[in-house]
Amino acid sequence: MKRIFNADLYLTQILNNYFSRNKFIASFFTYITHTSGGRTYIFYFIILPFLPELTNNVLTNKQASFIWVYGGTAFILFQVPIYFTLKQYVKRNRPYEYNYTKMLIKAPDQYSFPSGHCASAALITLLMFNQDFFLTPLFLIWMILILISRIGLGIHYITDVIGGLILGSVTYLVALYLSNFKLIYNHKLYSILSNFLN
Description:
It contains nine helices and no strands. It is an all-alpha fold. The chain is globular.
C-alpha cells in the first residue's frame, strides 16, 4: 500500500510541478477544469433539452433525450449520493494540505477522493459514445484534459482521478440499466422543456 501511495504522490507532484512553473499551462487548464464544475453541470442540465433546436440537430432530440432522461437520472439518484458518501467516508485530505502540491486554484470542498469533476466528465463522454454522437472524440479529449487539470492544478491525487473515472463509469452503467424502464414522467418533462422554444 505504501508503494502505491509513493507512486501516486510522485506522479502527482511531477505534474503539479510542471503546472507551477508554466503560467500559460496553468491558466489554460484552469479554464478547462471549470468546464466540468458542479455549477457548470447545472447549466448543462438546464440547456440540454434546447440543444437540438439551438444546434439545428447537430445533437439530435433522441440523443439529448437519452442523455437528459437516463444520464441525468443516474447522475442525480446515484452519482451525487455516492460521491458525497465516499467523500465523508474516506475523508482524504487534499494533497496541498500536506504541502505535497501547490494549490493553483481553490478546491470546491474539503476532501479529495473521489474527483467529482472526473466522474462527471467520464459520465458525459460515455453517454455521448453510447449515442454515437459524431463529436465524441472531442469529448474524449476534453475528458482527458479534465483529468490532467485536476492533478496538475494541485487539488487531486492521481488515485482521486481514477476513483472519479470509476464512479462516472459505474454511473453510466446505472444509466444503461435505467434505460430498460420508460421513466414516463422524466420523458414528459423533457418534452415540455424541449418544445419550449417552438
